[in-house]
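Homework help thread (please don't just give me the answer)

Our assignment gives two proteins as sequence + structure token strings and asks us to describe the second one. The first is just a warm-up. Here they are:
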Amino acid sequence: MSQKTQHLEKISRLLGYTFVEASLLESALTHRSFQASQSNERLEFLGDAVLSVIISKALFQQYPQATEGQLSRLRSSLVRRETLVEIAHYLQLGDYLYLGEGEIKSGGKQRDSILADALEAIIGAIYLDGGIIAAECCVLAWFKPKLAEIELNIETLKDPKSRLQEHLQAKKQLLPVYSVESIRDSTQMPLFKVTGSIPHTALSAVGTGSSRRRAEQAAAEALLKLIKHEN
């Protein structure tokens, strides 16, 4: 048995799915830094759509009384990078990716964007190899703990910026102001540092994230905690 075959069989066992066409799995594990012409980007595109359909169906069945808006927010809380990365780590996906030498040296095997994209690519590969039933079985097995713990609570489903804005509007206070303090660029990803403050108060908090939006959400979350502590 070749080293490549052993490599693919090991990750197949972790995924809980045996491919008929092993080349699909190999493509799903291939980052563009390793081989651009055979990268997993097209499979990622497909897997993103398949994942959305599977989770949408699961939530539709799990919450028969939920509105369309509630279901959309539930889906968004599940089908996001943080969840995909958590599952990718659980599956030890980073150990099986095909990356270029430069990407490996810069920590690509643990980079959130690469892990999340690879997991979506694998979902796309399973769909092409075994159909929607096979993809659904795998996705639901991976997402089972998340689906079990999620609650139909609209307040917790709203993002921090929305919750903070609604709280301040209810108190007839001015809306928060967000300002970018710094942007650190690195070989892995940029890091934004944002300060959120509430006008005419002493309340301010700092948030960081890989994008301005993420940093603003983190700052809003910190402000909500400050407000709760004051009350």
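The one we have to describe:
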Amino acid sequence: MKLGGQIVTFVIAWAVLLLLLGINVLLAYQPIGGLHGFVPIGIAATQAFIIMAIFMKLRGRPSLKWVFAGAGFFWLMILLGLSSTDYMTRAAWPL
């Protein structure tokens, strides 16, 4: 890919990341009920995939890089899952 094509790809990815960030900020102030925890996590996962595919240059490469990137992402999900179980099992703070 030529340098001009890479710049266009990076600018488009940056614009999509900013759009997803704006949607995330707007949804933070909207009453969306029970989806209030799942939608931001889905948006963050989409942003992480865009960053991995475009900026880490993993797109279109069936190689060992995907294995290690996936292992790191899997480990992050384990850490977030364990942290969230600790947070959800705590008693509420007294007011």
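TA reply:
I won't write it for you, but here's a hint about the kind of observation we're looking for: Residues 17 and 47 are 6 Å apart (CA to CA).
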